[in-house]
Amino acid sequence: MRLPNKCLVDINVPKNANLATNPDPDSDAPNACILACVEAVEHVVEKRGLVIDDGDEIFDEYRRQLAIKGQPGVGDRFIKWVHDNRWKFPKTDRILITKKGDSYYEFPEHPGLELFDVSDRKFIAVANAHADKRPVLQATDSKWWKWRQALIEVGISVFFLCPEYVKPKSEKKLGK
After folding, report:
1. How far apart are CA 38 and CA 134, in angstroms?
2. Burial zone of 61 (CB within 10 Å; 0-12 exposed, 13-18 middle, 19+ buried)
3. pTM exceeding 0.85
């Protein structure tokens, strides 16, 4: 799989990467998905290709759900790398987004996105506000699958690392 050189990384990517060294018996993520997440996180770090918001909302979400000391997992090393390097990212990859109630002014207006998760809107707002509309890496959140067409229509791409996992899960939730 060819990953983009610059992208946003949804929190579930490094969280699933952590499963490679710290398996969770409650997780149903397949091994291929976990490996794809490990490779994606390593790729982003190697290419120094992370896009985040200038107000640290994305970083704060990483910090709440990953171990900033950088261990024991790949996702934990990722948050440590973000912590140590985020102020070195090019200004063009630290995007200013502005709150608008539970959403953001930069979140695209589209009827298909009205029910988009409030907690994930920051990723879409940043992608939409970036001059090059960088893609978002997504692993196991099947709700994103149902929003992919609306996102494409507003010019935002989602790079699904685990489509064989999220597609059937999304279709099951939608009753297909």
Report:
1. 20
2. middle
3. yes
Is residue 1 in a domain? no
Instruction: Tell me the residue range of the domain where 139 lies.
Output: 8-173
- Where residue 155 falls (left for φ over 0; alpha for ψ -120 to 50; beta otherwise) is left
**DSSP 8-class letter at 109:** P
| Residue 12 located in a structural domain | yes
Supply 32's token pair.
């291929």
The tens digit of pLDDT for each residue in 70-105 reads: 999 999 999 999 999 999 999 999 999 999 999 999
What is the number of structural domains in the chain? 1
What does the pLDDT look like over 96-131, one tens digit per residue? 999 999 999 999 999 999 999 999 999 999 999 999
Among 97, 61, 94, 54, which residue's Cα sits nearest to residue 79? 61
**Residues for the chain: how many in total?**
176
HSE-CB for 122 with a 13 A CA cutoff: 20
